[in-house]
Amino acid sequence: MITEKVRIIWNRRVGASYYKLGLKCGKELIAAKPGQFVMLRLPGRASPLLRRPFSIHGIIEGEGIEILYRVVGECTGMLAEALEGEWLDIMGPLGKGFSLSENSGGIYIVAGGIGVAPMLFLSKYILEKKTTCSTGVRVFLGAGSKEDLLCRDDFLNLGIEVTITTDDGSEGEACFITNPVEAAVKEKRPEAICACGPPGMLKCLAGIAETYNVPCQISMESVMACGIGACLGCAVGGKDESRYLHVCMDGPVFDSREIRF
To answer: Is residue 123 domain-shared with residue 214, that is, in the same domain?
Structure first.
């Protein structure tokens, strides 16, 4: 883990309220693994005082990392106005990422909304490893509407089969993304499910994984003040009711069986 000032390579709008941020970073950040995250802050500004967590969306080979983010509040609103060449304060890479066996024969990757942020990185990582787990990769993208669907073309350009659902039926089937996931698991059991998205989606996937005895790794989001386990503000309940886990240190990627939803 390092703390450094990084330069903005690009800050591109990719949707109604979505942006991709390219950052020129040192070697340690470029060596990050899918599922890890960084804490960002705009230097020289009194507010917001604390850094904010962002999943690493991808690696810019030889240069840095990319972040996919949605404008939802003061910090991301200010971030959307940042220009090429400006500097940010960054800390990372942080947390535990996804862990897949090189002998895995098929992976179902599930993303809900902005939860797609770490999943494109994971998909590219799997394919670049050129192991047996690169065969049988399927992606399931869920969103509220067509305007909230992200990275579909990126996955298709990787040659990955993509299934889409939206809550309002404006793209794909009008249902929860967990519906086609369960149907696909029934038809052909994968070696693993990897997911990131809203809590309800992750809870449902954990149930599907338990029912069909499929290993499932979930990337969880949480409000964080520090990102290094000092503030204890990102606690989630573990299966052992006497124990709490912390998203920043024990995660953000967990075995779904570890979490008490």
So the answer is: yes
Residue at which a domain ends, from 94, 118, 147: 94
Is 194 or 2 the better-scoring residue by pLDDT?
194
Place of tokens 């573990």: 238
User: Is 159 strand, coil or helix?
Assistant: coil
Q: What is the mean pLDDT of residues 48-54?
A: 83
pLDDT in tens, 66-86: 999 999 988 899 999 999 999
Q: What is the CATH number of the domain that holds 53?
A: 2.40.30.10
86 exposed, middle or buried (CB, 10 Å; 0-12, 13-18, 19+)? middle
Q: Which of 163, 187, 157 is nearest to 175 (CA)?
A: 163
Count the domains in the chain.
Answer: 2
Across 173-196, b (16+ Cβ under 10 Å) vs e yields eeebbbebbbebbeeeebbbbbbb
What CA–CA distance (Å, rounded) separates 29 from 17? 26
pLDDT digits (tens, 9 = 90+) for 149-201: 999 999 999 999 999 999 999 999 999 999 999 999 999 999 999 999 999 99
The closest of 226, 181, 179, 218 to 97, measured between CA atoms, is: 218
> What domain range is 58 assigned to?
2-94
